[in-house]
Amino acid sequence: MTEPAHDLSRTALRHAGVRCAALCLVGTAATAAGLLLPAVLGRTLDLLLAHGPAAGWVGGSAALVLLLALLDAAASVLAGTVDARATAGLRGRLTAHVLALGPRALTRFGAGDLVARLVGNAAQAGTGPAALAALLAAFAGPVGGVVALAVVDPWLAAVFLAGAPVLALLLRAFTRDTSACVAAYQREQGRIADALAEAVDGRRTIAAAGLQDRETARVLRPLPALGRAGHRMWRVQGRAAARAVAVGPLLQLAVVAVAGWLLRRHRISVGDVLAASRYAVLATGVGVLVGRLAALARARASARRLAELTACPAPVHGTRRLPPGPGRLDLRGVAAHPGGRAVLDGVDLTVPGGTVLAVVGRSGTGKSLLAALAGRLADPDAGEVLLDGVPLTALPHDELRRAVTYAFARPALLGTTVADTIAFGLASPSPAEIAAAARKAHADVYIGRLPDGGATRLRDSPRSGGEAQRLGLARAFAHPGRLLILDDALSSLDTVTEHRITESLLAPGPGPTRLIVAHRADTAARAHTVAWLDGGRVRAVGTHARLWRDPEYRAVFAAPAAEEATR
Question: What is the layout of strands, in order, in the sheet containing 483-487?
Answer without folding.
Answer: 404-408, 483-487, 513-517, 356-360, 529-534, 537-542
